């Protein structure tokens, strides 16, 4: 009897132990699944942010072109083809044309790419293929530092150095001009172009280079005939990112652009008003239709960036295929 | 032209391009420091930006200096007139007890301008005359009109610091958790592709667009007004790609055997992450935070539209304020004061240099540990 009782007791204890075990297990399982969901939720915030940004900017920016807008409507054609920007509380006498801003933005970006890309690629070549290790160790951090300098400082440099210099040589009295914007943007895209071209150059297989040397090519010939063509898609990705940076740059450009209220630039001495600075300059005090139209300017800018991102995706996907 | 000539010319181009890049960098930093460093001293870092004038009553004291107030003056030009400026304050002086007309204590400091003493103007008076004026007053307290000329960046330093803390407090958990999901939990598939695409897109969107979004969503829709909170929330979205990417990199670098060992000992996945994965990734996460700080310090376009340009020490998270870079922009654009902009710029560049150095040191340590 006694033994029997003991056994029952033992069994009972075991059962209790097991139930405690199960309780802990259950709690752990719940905790694990809660944690998993929390991590997932946080990962989705990036997605939600992109969606929210696109939604809000487009929602607000497209309103002026629909006839049921409470603040009044503005013709989409006039907006995209107008060359005058005269905000006015009275909608019938206000002019919101951004064609000259689009032209200014594109011209400045194109100019910066034309000067900045060759310089950037050659610097990348120097860093990864020509420079001795000791010099490379100085120049690489220097380029990183160039990338880390805030855009306002580029703007102050432009305003304090580039603009006065241009004023001396320009046929116009004003130094704030397309040329000043191009020069500032050139400097600003350099780090992007250099770092990305450099990693593309480093990724070129050694066999290509050795093969070229084996055929009797010189170092320079190898660089320009073998390495650069092989690194083409990587470099192109860097150029596209550079375009993105140039077209989206605001603060530095705002200080040196001049920001006129009308006129497509016809020479590099003309002042321009890029899309970005149009938003930043007037958003502080704009309301009603004026504010919505500034969002429309943002929509145009956004569309440019989306197109660039799609191109970038194509390029990087191609590079991945290799 | 023979081959070696051609090669030499190309070497020349490569050298020129590099010289341009490095030269521009040196020129920019040199320009900012040469124009800016002369402004920087303790006063610049600790005083307000806006000038402030007040009438204060200062109790007289017994001291060995030239006047009853225990203050020595020097003459300095301000707005075209020579005024006496506080050069030093004696230990025995009772200026600490100075009170304004509302009864608030006002702290007088070195560099403050004394414009009137007991209703007598001090315009262009020699110092001896000023001391005489003070010593001829018989009452226990002397009424003085003081101007603190401001031109300091203390409010912007505080605003920048607050913005850094607030943005990191929001962005770090989100970014790190997202990176944990991507490396520890996610299986390759549509969802992961979408998340990665979104992160990349976030990195490519120009900051003025973030500013537009922040303005319409945080400032107007959530009614936060132009405030540090709205600015920081906008910034934390900008920071997400930086933190996610950097953290992911350091998580991927942790050998799988660590995780397997921990799981093999019976730890749950969550325990493994908390006790094994995260501690090993800590230096990568610190680098992510430092890079984010650099980004916050340098950001301006988004903050211009969400946090405003007021150069005052923020009372709370809902008051608007300018960070260093926003103020540097405002000073250059609205006042055309390149010197002041460079002074603020120097502070920013020094900050960036320190942050760059820190992240270098930490990543070096990280690599050594791994090897």
From TrEMBL, chain A:
<comment type="function">
    <text>Part of the binding-protein-dependent transport system for phosphate; probably responsible for the translocation of the substrate across the membrane.</text>
</comment>
<dbReference type="GO" id="GO:0006817">
    <property type="term" value="P:phosphate ion transport"/>
</dbReference>
<dbReference type="Pfam" id="PF00528">
    <property type="entry name" value="BPD_transp_1"/>
</dbReference>
<feature type="transmembrane region" description="Helical">
    <location>
        <begin position="145"/>
        <end position="166"/>
    </location>
</feature>
<dbReference type="GO" id="GO:0005886">
    <property type="term" value="C:plasma membrane"/>
</dbReference>
<dbReference type="InterPro" id="IPR011864">
    <property type="entry name" value="Phosphate_PstC"/>
</dbReference>
<protein>
    <recommendedName>
        <fullName>Phosphate transport system permease protein</fullName>
    </recommendedName>
</protein>
<dbReference type="InterPro" id="IPR035906">
    <property type="entry name" value="MetI-like_sf"/>
</dbReference>
<feature type="transmembrane region" description="Helical">
    <location>
        <begin position="38"/>
        <end position="59"/>
    </location>
</feature>
<feature type="domain" description="ABC transmembrane type-1">
    <location>
        <begin position="102"/>
        <end position="312"/>
    </location>
</feature>
<keyword id="KW-1003">Cell membrane</keyword>
<feature type="transmembrane region" description="Helical">
    <location>
        <begin position="178"/>
        <end position="201"/>
    </location>
</feature>
<feature type="transmembrane region" description="Helical">
    <location>
        <begin position="293"/>
        <end position="312"/>
    </location>
</feature>
<dbReference type="GO" id="GO:0005315">
    <property type="term" value="F:phosphate transmembrane transporter activity"/>
</dbReference>
<keyword id="KW-0592">Phosphate transport</keyword>
<feature type="transmembrane region" description="Helical">
    <location>
        <begin position="98"/>
        <end position="125"/>
    </location>
</feature>
<comment type="similarity">
    <text>Belongs to the binding-protein-dependent transport system permease family. CysTW subfamily.</text>
</comment>
<keyword id="KW-0472">Membrane</keyword>
<dbReference type="InterPro" id="IPR000515">
    <property type="entry name" value="MetI-like"/>
</dbReference>
<dbReference type="InterPro" id="IPR051124">
    <property type="entry name" value="Phosphate_Transport_Permease"/>
</dbReference>
<keyword id="KW-0812">Transmembrane</keyword>
<keyword id="KW-0813">Transport</keyword>
From TrEMBL, chain B:
<feature type="domain" description="ABC transmembrane type-1">
    <location>
        <begin position="157"/>
        <end position="359"/>
    </location>
</feature>
<protein>
    <recommendedName>
        <fullName>Phosphate transport system permease protein PstA</fullName>
    </recommendedName>
</protein>
<dbReference type="GO" id="GO:0005315">
    <property type="term" value="F:phosphate transmembrane transporter activity"/>
</dbReference>
<keyword id="KW-0812">Transmembrane</keyword>
<keyword id="KW-1133">Transmembrane helix</keyword>
<dbReference type="InterPro" id="IPR000515">
    <property type="entry name" value="MetI-like"/>
</dbReference>
<keyword id="KW-0472">Membrane</keyword>
<feature type="transmembrane region" description="Helical">
    <location>
        <begin position="338"/>
        <end position="358"/>
    </location>
</feature>
<dbReference type="GO" id="GO:0035435">
    <property type="term" value="P:phosphate ion transmembrane transport"/>
</dbReference>
<dbReference type="GO" id="GO:0005886">
    <property type="term" value="C:plasma membrane"/>
</dbReference>
<comment type="similarity">
    <text>Belongs to the binding-protein-dependent transport system permease family. CysTW subfamily.</text>
</comment>
<dbReference type="InterPro" id="IPR035906">
    <property type="entry name" value="MetI-like_sf"/>
</dbReference>
<feature type="transmembrane region" description="Helical">
    <location>
        <begin position="226"/>
        <end position="244"/>
    </location>
</feature>
<feature type="transmembrane region" description="Helical">
    <location>
        <begin position="12"/>
        <end position="34"/>
    </location>
</feature>
<keyword id="KW-1003">Cell membrane</keyword>
<feature type="transmembrane region" description="Helical">
    <location>
        <begin position="153"/>
        <end position="182"/>
    </location>
</feature>
<feature type="transmembrane region" description="Helical">
    <location>
        <begin position="202"/>
        <end position="220"/>
    </location>
</feature>
<dbReference type="Pfam" id="PF00528">
    <property type="entry name" value="BPD_transp_1"/>
</dbReference>
<dbReference type="InterPro" id="IPR005672">
    <property type="entry name" value="Phosphate_PstA"/>
</dbReference>
<dbReference type="InterPro" id="IPR036034">
    <property type="entry name" value="PDZ_sf"/>
</dbReference>
<feature type="transmembrane region" description="Helical">
    <location>
        <begin position="277"/>
        <end position="297"/>
    </location>
</feature>
<keyword id="KW-0813">Transport</keyword>
């Amino acid at each position: 009897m006694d033994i029997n009782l003991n056994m029952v007791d033992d069994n009972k204890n075991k059962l209790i132990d097991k139930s405690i075990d199960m309780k802990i297990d259950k709690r752990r399982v719940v905790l694990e699944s809660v944690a998993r969901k929390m991590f997932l939720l946080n990962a989705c915030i990036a997605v939600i942010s992109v969606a929210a940004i696109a939604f809000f900017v487009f929602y607000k920016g497209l309103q002026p072109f629909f006839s049921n807008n409470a603040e009044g409507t503005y013709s989409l054609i006039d907006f995209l083809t107008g060359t005058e920007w005269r905000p006015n509380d009275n909608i019938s006498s206000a002019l919101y044309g951004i064609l000259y801003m689009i032209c200014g933005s594109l011209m400045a970006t194109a100019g910066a790419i034309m000067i900045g890309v060759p310089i950037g690629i050659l610097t990348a070549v120097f860093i990864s293929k020509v420079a001795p290790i000791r010099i490379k160790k100085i120049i690489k951090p220097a380029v990183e530092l160039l990338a880390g300098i805030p855009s306002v400082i580029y703007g102050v440099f432009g305003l304090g150095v580039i603009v006065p210099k241009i004023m001396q040589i320009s046929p116009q009295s004003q130094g704030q001009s397309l040329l000043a914007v191009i020069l500032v943007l050139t400097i600003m895209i350099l780090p992007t172009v250099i770092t990305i071209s450099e990693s593309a150059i480093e990724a070129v297989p050694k066999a290509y280079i050795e093969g070229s040397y084996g055929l009797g090519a010189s170092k320079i010939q190898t660089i320009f005939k073998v390495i650069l063509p092989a690194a083409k898609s990587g470099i192109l990705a860097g150029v596209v990112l550079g375009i993105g940076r140039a077209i989206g740059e605001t603060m530095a450009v705002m200080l040196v652009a001049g920001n006129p209220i009308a006129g497509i630039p016809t020479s590099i001495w003309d002042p321009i008003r890029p899309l970005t600075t149009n938003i930043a300059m007037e958003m502080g005090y704009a309301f009603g239709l004026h504010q919505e139209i500034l969002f429309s300017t943002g929509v145009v800018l956004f569309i440019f960036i989306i197109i660039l991102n799609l191109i970038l995706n194509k390029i990087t996907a191609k590079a991945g295929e290799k | 032209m023979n081959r070696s000539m051609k090669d030499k010319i190309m070497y020349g181009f490569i050298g020129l391009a590099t010289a341009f890049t490095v030269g521009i960098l040196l020129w920019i930093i040199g320009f900012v420091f040469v124009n800016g460093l002369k402004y920087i001293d303790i006063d610049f870092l600790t005083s307000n930006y806006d000038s402030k004038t007040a009438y204060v009553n200062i109790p007289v004291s017994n001291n060995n200096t030239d006047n009853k107030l225990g203050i020595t003056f020097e003459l300095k030009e301000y707005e075209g007139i020579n005024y006496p400026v506080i050069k030093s304050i004696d230990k025995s002086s009772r200026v600490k007890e100075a009170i304004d007309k509302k009864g608030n204590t006002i702290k007088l400091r070195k560099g403050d301008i004394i414009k009137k003493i007991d209703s007598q103007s001090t315009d262009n008076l020699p110092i001896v005359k000023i001391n005489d004026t003070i010593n001829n007053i018989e009452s226990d307290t002397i009424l003085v009109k003081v101007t603190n000329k401001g031109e300091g960046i203390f409010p912007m330093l505080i605003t920048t610091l607050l913005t850094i803390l607030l943005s990191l407090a929001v962005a770090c958990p989100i970014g790190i958790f997202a990176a944990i999901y991507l490396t520890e939990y996610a299986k390759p598939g549509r969802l992961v592709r979408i998340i990665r695409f979104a992160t990349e897109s976030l990195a490519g969107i120009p900051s003025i667009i973030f500013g537009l979004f922040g303005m319409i969503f945080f400032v107007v829709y959530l009614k936060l007004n132009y405030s540090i909170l709205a600015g920081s929330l906008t910034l934390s979205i900008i920071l997400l790609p930086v933190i996610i990417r950097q953290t992911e990199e350091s998580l991927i670098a942790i050998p799988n055997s660590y995780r397997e060992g921990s799981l093999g000992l019976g730890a749950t996945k969550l325990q493994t992450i908390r006790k094994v994965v995260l501690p090993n990734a800590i230096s990568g996460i610190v680098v992510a935070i430092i890079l984010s700080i650099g980004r916050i310090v340098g950001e301006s376009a988004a903050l211009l539209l969400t946090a405003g340009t007021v150069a005052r020490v923020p009372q709370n998270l809902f008051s608007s304020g300018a960070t260093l870079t926003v103020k540097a922009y405002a000073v250059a654009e609205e006042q055309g004061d390149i010197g002041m902009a460079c002074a603020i710029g120097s502070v920013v560049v020094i900050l960036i240099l320190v942050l760059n150095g820190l992240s270098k040191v930490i990543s070096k340590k990280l690599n050594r540990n791994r090897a």
